[in-house]
Amino acid sequence: MLRFAANLSMMYVEHDFLDRFAAAAKDGFSGVEFLFPYDYQPQEIKSRLEANGLTQALFNAPPGDWAVGERGIASLPGRQDEFKRSIDTALEYAAVIGNQTLHVMAGLIKPDQDRAQHRAVYLDNLSYAAHQAESAGLTVVIEPINTRNIPGFFLNRQDDAQAICAEVGAPNLKVQFDCYHCQIVEGDVAVKLKRDMPGIGHIQIAGVPERHEPDVGELNYPYLLKLIDSLGYQGWIGCEYNPAGATSAGLGWLKALAEQGLTTLKK
């Protein structure tokens, strides 16, 4: 049985952020995810989750200065102390909010920068993050992201992400498999899901190429979701897409899955 989490950073944007929890629960979601909680007190978010019977699936560690274009600091040389503080902050929030998975973004690299140096910093930082998270019972995930959406992002391929996790060697470090990014960079999504499932800690979906609802575009999600279920995946599937219109009006794909018995909707 698949579990879907509404991404409140991209869905229900017709509502103020704190009102999106109730909107997602009303549409039958039992879980939510979002990019960052740090503009709010953790207890404020926890109260919204509890009031609406929702589980927090995942959020991201602080990514550096998002407003000026930073997209993570885990691979950035010279930012190691800041990275450690960011993990401390994220774990403080997770202890209240209750999520068991934390996404750590790699960051950007310029063409003239030393990739080997970035990778070495990345490995050291991920080892620290995984160690700190393990004592709190959390899994850390890293995500390959396509360079059409985020030019210069350090981590782009599934095999590279899996290799990095293997090299760090922490049992609670896994890959966040976003079908949208994988299709744009590599394709062959089903084969990669079969190959990498033991190392996948979180899955996300969106239509390709527009990043709208998953029932529109070039990916065959009915097939992929049945495959994910057959592979025994037990984690959440984050709906990280930009609705083409009003969020609730575009959820026919989710209701169809419920009718097929692949998921259940809250009542």
TrEMBL record:
<dbReference type="InterPro" id="IPR036237">
    <property type="entry name" value="Xyl_isomerase-like_sf"/>
</dbReference>
<keyword id="KW-0413">Isomerase</keyword>
<feature type="domain" description="Xylose isomerase-like TIM barrel">
    <location>
        <begin position="21"/>
        <end position="256"/>
    </location>
</feature>
<dbReference type="InterPro" id="IPR013022">
    <property type="entry name" value="Xyl_isomerase-like_TIM-brl"/>
</dbReference>
<dbReference type="Pfam" id="PF01261">
    <property type="entry name" value="AP_endonuc_2"/>
</dbReference>
<comment type="similarity">
    <text>Belongs to the hyi family.</text>
</comment>
<protein>
    <submittedName>
        <fullName>Hydroxypyruvate isomerase</fullName>
        <ecNumber>5.3.1.22</ecNumber>
    </submittedName>
</protein>
<dbReference type="InterPro" id="IPR053398">
    <property type="entry name" value="HPT_OtnI_isomerases"/>
</dbReference>
<dbReference type="GO" id="GO:0008903">
    <property type="term" value="F:hydroxypyruvate isomerase activity"/>
</dbReference>
<dbReference type="InterPro" id="IPR050417">
    <property type="entry name" value="Sugar_Epim/Isomerase"/>
</dbReference>
<dbReference type="InterPro" id="IPR026040">
    <property type="entry name" value="HyI-like"/>
</dbReference>
